[in-house]
Amino acid sequence: MKERKNQLLSLKNVGPATYQDLKILGIHTIKKLSTCHPDELYIRLQAITERAHDPCVWDVFAAIIHEARTGEKQPWWHWTPIRKKRQAADKFP
User: Fold this and answer.
1) Is the pTM of this model over 0.90?
2) Backbone phi, psi, residue 4, to 5°
3) How is residue 5 annotated by DSSP?
4) Is the residue at 36 inside a domain?
5) Segment 35-68, tens digit of pLDDT
6) Are the beta carbons of 21 and 57 closer than 8 angstroms?
7) Quick one: how many helices (H) and strands (E) in the chain?
8) How many CB atoms lie within 10 A of CB 46?
9) Is 54 among the domain residues?
10) Higher pLDDT, 5 or 23
11) What's the rounded Cα separation, in Å, for the pair 49 and 66?
12) SS3 sequence, 55-66?
């Protein structure tokens, strides 16, 4: 029997690596993703995997959460300046 494609893979910025990260985090639906915050996901992923992740992972999380909430598809790099501004203000995890 063929496995059904997960709905998360329909999001613009979810490829195999991000899909695996979401599975690690226990997120299996767009509805669940829409209730998340990128800071929390980024911090939890690093804690679970016990390693640092590239800050661009935060950008991807921000983009997919935004799409899950609004339906608006934006490239993940749209969120990079937002993260960098937060980093400059010491508000980035």
Assistant:
1) yes
2) -70, 140
3) P
4) yes
5) 999 999 999 999 999 999 999 999 999 999 999 9
6) yes
7) 5, 0
8) 14
9) yes
10) 23
11) 24
12) CHHHHHHHHHHH
Residue 8 lies in a domain: no
Percent of the chain with pLDDT over 90: 89
* Domain count within the chain: 1
- CB-based contacts of 92, cutoff 8 Å, min separation 6: 39, 55, 58, 83, 86
Of 92, 93, 56, 61, the C-alpha closest to 77 is 56
User: Which domain, by its residues, includes 83?
Assistant: 13-88
Question: Long-range contacts of range 63-72, CB-CB < 8 Å, 24 or more positions apart?
Answer: 63/12, 63/13, 64/8, 64/11, 64/12, 64/13, 64/14, 64/18, 64/33, 65/33, 65/34, 65/36, 65/37, 65/38, 65/41, 67/11, 67/12, 67/13, 68/11, 68/30, 68/31, 68/33, 68/34, 69/34
